[in-house]
């Protein structure tokens, strides 16, 4: 085995660091042409209403298939896109594609559902939110209530009044808003009642550990907050029947997670819904 002295350890650390930096630089550089080359795609994940046993909505999630690096995860490339500002054209593209696809589903497959798109804090900072959403709705001809924006609690850490104002303006377009990853943002609950949102999404972490009684207590309380503020509640990351049972018994009936389906292409989603429909009518 190699004798690792202090000097060597620093060298290994340096190499690791520069490898990460090089990858980041590569991602930064390649992201610019990725959109033109059609390397970004959109996957759709269903939100299922267990009360009515019907589709409740979908979430649109971005994917990047890099020609050499293969699939790059959003948790990696979204952070880079936020740093470089590329998140703005990428989100503009997402909004337009999702609205177009939703309109297509309505006209061709009799699928009428609300689809959500994740919004980075950078979009609010750019002050382009209203313009981008309005543009996507106008181009597609999609009514606003079929579009939802997912924001995270951490957004409220910046200028809350400005965020509220921007959210109000898009709500005038009938667009819905949900608070994603709820319970992990450590935001004070103090301003929650002032945020114009429609839905709380319980973070996956609580669902994955919901066998623990302490996590069940948190879940129950998030559901209670939602009910008291007149908000809808959705559970994210649902993978097992046990988790569904726990959530239902505590009053949460809309589920999103691998138990139902992983995010899938629009085409696969159409087939998946077709199959569900047949299961109901048979
Ligand atoms: P998110 O908005 O909280 O999305 C949910 C993530 O959980 C997705 O990961 C989804 O694939 C994953 N997931 C869903 N069900 C399950 C489950 O049952 N088990 C487990 N283990 N995971 C599940 P994904 O697609 O990798 O996205 C990660 C994050 O990247 C998203 O978290 C969102 O914050 C961000 N993101 C993705 N697409 C976009 C986008 O177009 N714009 C922005 N700004 N952010 C995006
Ligand atoms: Mg989300
Ligand atoms: Mg989430
Ligand atoms: Mg998340």
Automatic annotation (TrEMBL):
UniProt keyword Kinase present: no
Domain EAL: residue ranges: 24-277
Domain of life assignment: Bacteria
Keyword Transmembrane helix part of the UniProt annotation: yes
Keywords: Membrane, Transmembrane, Transmembrane helix
Name the UniProt record assigns to this protein: EAL domain-containing protein
Organism for this UniProt entry: Paenibacillus lignilyticus
